[in-house]
Specification:
disordered C terminus, alpha/beta, 217 residues, 5-stranded mixed β-sheet, disordered N terminus, binds iron/sulfur cluster, Uracil-DNA Glycosylase, subunit E, 37% helix
Length: 217
């Protein structure tokens, strides 16, 4: 890793244990985005098992995430945790990461350039994990990974295939959990989408979920 932020180690032929792999997914230093370097307290890496079936991708750290060094904590994280529980999942079962790993100032969206700067880190994480399903939480990660404009409220719940990190990946689009706080009418849809994520990835287990259903989409 260089000081100006080379991507996560591209890997070797050896099979590292989970903690070694988790270490490889961390970005110990990176200064590619001057405004974000200025506004961040720390780099917020992804959390969760390195063999997770399910990878959630958000936009970027907010104030609480920047403070605690973990994606999706605070009120949005509470909603996500509740939906995961309803789906028969726990936060510890899934991996959660962001498109950019440093907090944008004043909670603004990351710029196109910042998203591009951090893409190598995200792609390396996706490549390493090879999750069964990626869930994009909100418009920014959906548009970033699908490389097209997305009407997230109407497209939330849809499953699409997209070429990401050198391979075709299955992606489930979702509204951001915070959307349920601003607009209660989005809550049921969000919870249904997370339940679907558990079924499609097999992460929630059970007779009705699992890999066999992937072929339906
Ligand atoms: S957002 Fe990503 S690319 Fe930009 S400084 Fe942080 S870790 Fe580096």
């Amino acid at each position: 890793m260089t000081e100006n932020g080379d991507a996560i180690d591209g890997g070797s032929d050896e099979a590292p244990n989970e903690s070694a792999l988790d270490e490889k997914l961390r970005v110990p230093s990176c200064e590619r985005c001057p405004a974000l370097v200025e506004s961040r307290s720390r780099i917020v890496d992804g959390v969760g098992p390195t063999d997770a079936d399910l990878l959630f991708v958000g936009e970027g750290p907010g104030a609480r995430e920047d403070e605690e060094g973990e994606p999706f904590v605070g009120r949005s994280g509470d909603v996500l945790d509740e939906a995961l529980r309803d789906a028969g999942l726990a936060r510890a079962d899934v991996r959660i990461t962001n498109c950019v790993r440093c907090r944008p100032p004043d909670n603004r969206d990351p710029t196109t350039e910042e998203l591009a700067n951090c893409r190598g880190h995200l792609d390396a994480e996706i490549d390493r994990l090879a999750p069964d399903l990626i869930v994009t939480l909100g418009k920014v990660p959906s548009e970033h990974l699908l490389d097209r404009s997305v009407a997230i409220t109407s497209e939330s719940g849809e499953v699409v295939d997209a070429r990401i990190a050198g391979a075709s990946r299955r992606v489930l689009l979702s509204v951001h959990p915070a959307a349920t706080l601003y607009d209660r009418s989005q809550r049921d849809g969000f919870f249904e989408t997370i339940a679907r994520a558990g079924e499609l990835s097999g992460a929630a287990g059970g007779e009705s979920g699992g890999q066999s259903r992937l072929g339906e989409f």
